[in-house]
Amino acid sequence: MRAFLCIAAASAVVLGACSSMGGSSGGSSSSSSPYSYGPMTSSAPAAPAMAADGALVGANKMTLYVFDRDSAAGAGKSVCNGACATNWPPLTATDGAKASGDWSVITRDDGARQWAFKGRPLYYFAKDTKPGDRTGDNFLNGAWHVATP
Length: 149
Hints:
Blueprint (H helix, E strand, L loop, with lengths): L49 E3 L2 E3 L7 E3 H6 L9 H5 L15 E5 L5 E5 L2 E2 L17 H4 L1 E3 L3
Antiparallel strand pairs: 1-2, 3-7, 4-5, 5-6
């Protein structure tokens, strides 16, 4: 049985054409992506993702991931910037998003806000093309993992 959490806002995330896996900061592209979702209306605070088949997925039902190198930087810090964030778009949070329970909001190096679950920033993988894809699991010598509830 699938356990579902409430769905909340995962606002615009941009994907660029860069295919490098660098971790340095840099510019970002402003093209639309399948990972862009505006705020959803709700009367109660809601989680920004839900659980499906043992994984966390965004409002678009796409798999979310965590990055081991973020842990080395300390809780609430993302080290995936620039070209890395092009390939691994962050699960962005709106300006009004509030932390609740296991969910927190961090500020990225570029000033954007990103959702974290249990202190770990969450990302999509640009090469996942449809809900249920998990092509980023154990990517980059096992540094990327499917986020689990």
